Amino acid sequence: MTSAPGRRSSIFTRLLRHGFTDPSAAERLLDSPELATVRNDPVLLDALGGTADPDLALHGLVRLLEAQDGATARQELLDTVIAAKPLRDRLLGVLGASEALAEHLARHPRDWQALVTYEPRDLHPGVEEFERGLADAADPVALRVSYRRCLLSIAARDVCGTVDVAQTAAELADLATATLRAALALAAADAPEDAAMCRLAVVAMGKCGGHELNYVSDVDVIFVGEAAGDADEDKALRAATRLASHMMRICSETTVEGSIWPVDANLRPEGRNGPLVRTLASHLAYYQRWAKTWEFQALLKARPVAGDLALGEEYTAALRPLVWKAAERENFVADVQEMRRRVVANIPAAEVDRQLKLGPGGLRDVEFAVQLLQLVHGRADASLRSGTTLDALKALAAGGYVGRADAAQLDEAYRFLRSLEHRIQLHRLRRTHLVPEDEADLRRLGRSLGLRTDPVTELTREWRRHTTAVRRLHEKLFYRPLLDAVAALAPGEARLSAEAARERMVALGYADPAAALRHLEALASGVTRKAAIQRTLLPVLLGWFADSADPDAGLLNFRKVSDALGKTPWYLRLLRDEGAAAENLARVLSAGRLAPDLLMRAPEAVALLGDGDGGGLSPRSRASLEQEVLAAVRRADNAVQGVTAARGVRRRELFRTAAADIVGSYGTESQPAEADQGALVDLVGGAVSDLTAATLAGTLRAVVREGWGDTLPTRFAVIGMGRFGGHELGYGSDADVLFVHEPREGVSEREASEAANKVVAEMRRLLQVPSADPPLLIDADLRPEGKSGPLVRTLASYEAYYRRWALVWERHALLRAEPVAGDEDLGRRFVELIDPLRYPVGGLDEDAVREIRRLKARMEAERLPRGADPKLHAKLGPGGLSDVEWTVQLAQLRHAGEVPGLRTTRTREALAAAREAGLMSEEDAAHLDEAWVLATRVRNAVMLVRGRAGDTFPTVPRELAAVGRYLGYGPGHAGDMLDAYRRTARRARGIVEELFYGGL
Question: What are the distances in angstroms from CA 525 to CA 497, 506, 522, 568, 676?
Fold first, then answer.
């Protein structure tokens, strides 16, 4: 039928106004014969415009009319739609929200009548009502049809707003219960002998067990079986297994009517590897001896739903006491949090931002938090033992375990996210938790949730608002009630008891909960502005402390810093307002002793942790450090003051470097941990070496200025050796150096030598004077003749000595020599003097190579500490620093005369040059580099954690765990770390034996 232009324009406009996105197609459908009698009825158009997708609803209605059996049936449907508002809203609401249910109605055109009745008992059906709805299903195909008919009524109540999202989820769980019972009955009818031989209980888990099921979800179950009467137990279990398997197939297999949903029994003991059906005694034995923390968490939602319900109740009664003891397990909270992190890590990167269930701020964050608090506090408070997330959250708030405002926000966010998830799944009845990207899909979703002005924009805004709220509250949920308990600011409010607060602190990893609560009370009590800000900061900080290996130390150190800086106007403001400062501080204070010790000596260095003017955590260049140190020396009244100022700069910059290293190793919420471990090693080595050079330059200037004014009688230079010269110093390294001088014109060698020796003696003394700043030890044992030789030599003396007497070990040591302070020209000429010795043309002769190999073997035998495990000694053990460095240095001594790239003091650069020169394979070079980087990281970690240098892993468990966290291993994985170190070192040792003892 063709419309007149004016009428067409009018209808087109009305369709647009009612929310149709394809008015032309809609107009053609309205002109179809099936709608001939109602095409101009405003009631129909208004009703279609009220649906989530008017185009989809109209298309579904026409298909349903076309499927009716004759004109009489079509007219009956149309008359009912126009006359009965409840049916009209229900039917069109479903057709506008679900293509899948529209398809079902087109295949079963009389099923629309299931939506006609509108009695009170129809508004809140339970298991009994759904069982009646499925009662006529005599086979799996009929069961699917009946299931969809029942689902149709649930969806109708949902999209019309007759029930809320929690009631919808409960109805879906009740329908699943009725369906499992019907499927089990069909299976039993097919195998009556099996059914007679056994008792079989079906226990729902997950969302079905928790009475909060989705439209399309796996239904998680556990099966419990026993022999019936005098039947043989083994035969009975085999019969029960056959029944259970058949029941699962009835629900899961695809037929001409599709499938219902998969039945998933993988939460059973031993998962897929375990028997499908166990006896109650077998279940109990497994959970008592072998179960992991997550398995007790899963049992929170266990609920008997089908089969022998009495046996199911025996199962839950037997396991319930074990569930409420789970929080007493070692590493309980760490296990739960690690499981959450593992879930997030397994989400494909392209899906993270669209994941409603598993992504940050998603449904799982709320569920994990609630379940964790239930397990911690449900031991003593039975009111918390609900398997339903929202009911449990309400109980937690009522008991003071969660702040009421926080609980209200989480409740609102969870309801929104679940509603969005329901609407996404309802469209095609497919299992998905991804928010779609297509604008038409987003528009339909927004309208289905009542967002009609600008559905796409409003939906995106609301979704982001709620996920942000969940992310923000996720950690605070655990800690804010602790502050309420110790601060006691609101009389009459429900709050944690002292025992509940203690239990929570223990569960969250605090070894001394009483001390921790005292710290919280000192920080957060009172009505001052400072206490108010602390109460805002502490819930988040406590979460970060708990994420470390030593939460107690983190909290104690935070209290010390806060006590020291609490009266300054900028400290708390920095932590509150600077995005990174609070988290960086929490990581630094709980990662070990070194960084907090450096900070406590000058707490104002906290400013370095912010985003703003403190300079951030990027290491400063040697030039800028030297400029600051020399300026401070110039302002000082004497050498002591000057060197004190230089050491103060060194302390502050050591803290900056340590903080950058810790934050890079741990990562933050906004920045993942640095993946390139070598970059962190280079950062620390370069920064500490530059800082040591600047400190020596300032100390030299202070000593010369006090003793001789502007000019020393002799030119004087400091040559860095060992790790210092190689830009590879660690936090606890001494400064290996040589001192060289050259008398100025007119100055006798004796006078020059006396002046140079006085300078060295005074530098060493001032850098070790006891003070609040860490000492800098100067080691000159690599000088000619070692400890027996003079501390300072003239350039000419070095030349004479090296020309006549230089030993192989001295030439070897000179590979790392580099000027670091003093007269630049003198330093350059010293390098010119030694280059022919360390980079000999033609390399080393065989006698020299044998001597180097002998020296290394002797060092390994004599210098390894007694009782130390060689395989875990990062410096001298097999595959450790010494192995890699001697191998690289042998390559330099033999080939640097011909390979310019090998003429470097840095190990990793020389290793790369050896690879490029073909002296070793790319794979061997990569393994040696990996081993060297790991060993260096271990030494840095030990110093950060213990506050003193060490070359092997700590034996104290908490210190070992802290080293593990620094190296990227989560709680409980210290053994994995040690195994990985041994494996890396063993592989490197094999390469060293091949290259050092033959291949280079």
Answer: 16, 21, 6, 19, 43
CA 301 to chain centre: 26
Measure Cα distances from 134 to 113, 128, 172, 479 in Å.
Answer: 16, 10, 14, 48
Q: Which residue, 148, 141, 137, is CA-closest to 98?
A: 148
Residue 676, Cβ neighbours under 10 Å: how many? 10
Distance CA 410, CA 404 (A): 10
Task: Give dist(CA 388, CA 212) in Å, integer.
Answer: 7
The whole-angstrom separation of Cα 371 and Cα 477 is: 12
CB within 8 Å of 273: residues ≥ 6 apart: none
Closest to 820 measured CA to CA, from 688, 681, 694, 645: 694
Quick one: CA torsion of 350, 352, 356, 361, rounded to 10 degrees?
-160
Q: What is the full DSSP assignment across 158-218? A: HHTTSS-HHHHHHHHHHHHHHHHHHHHHHHHHH-HHHHHHEEEEEEE-HHHHTT---SS--
Dihedral through CA 183, CA 189, CA 190, CA 191, nearest 10? 110
Identify the residue whose tokens are 């009688």: 713
Beta pairing partners, 263: 219
pLDDT at res. 2: 47
Angle at 949 between CA 948 and CA 950, to 5 degrees: 120
Give the separation between CA 642 and CA 696, rounded to whole angstroms: 12
Q: What is the DSSP letter of 715?
A: E
What does the alpha-carbon distance between residue 968 and residue 990 come to, in Å, rounded to a whole number? 26
The Cα–Cα gap between 851 and 905 comes to 21
Q: How far is CA 531 from CA 546, 562, 695, 754, 942, in A?
A: 21, 11, 40, 60, 35
Supply the pTM of this predicted model.
0.73
Please count the other Cβ atoms lying within 10 Å of the Cβ belonging to residue 114: 18
Q: SS3 of 258, please? A: strand
Q: What distance in Å separates the CA atoms of residue 180 and residue 804, rounded to the nearest whole number?
A: 94
Q: Which two tokens stand for residue 647?
A: 């050491």
- Please tell me the total number of residues recorded for the chain in this structure: 1000
Per-residue pLDDT tens for 185-226?
999 999 999 999 999 999 999 999 999 999 999 999 999 999
d(C-alpha 201, C-alpha 195), whole Å: 12
475 touches 483 (CB < 8 A): no
- Residues of the chain with pLDDT below 70 are 1-9, 118-122, 333-334, 337, 340-345, 475, 483-484, 486-495, 579, 611-615, 999
Residue 318 tokens, joined? 């037997």
Side chain identity, residue 110: R
Q: Which tokens hold the place of 1?
A: 């039928």
CB 894 within 8 A of CB 849: yes
Q: What is the pLDDT of residue 164?
A: 94
Cα–Cα dist 143/136, whole Å: 8
d(CA 832, CA 822): 17
For 454-488, b where at least 16 C-beta lie within 10 A, e where not — what string?
ebbebbeebbeebbebbbebbbbbbbbbbbbbbbe
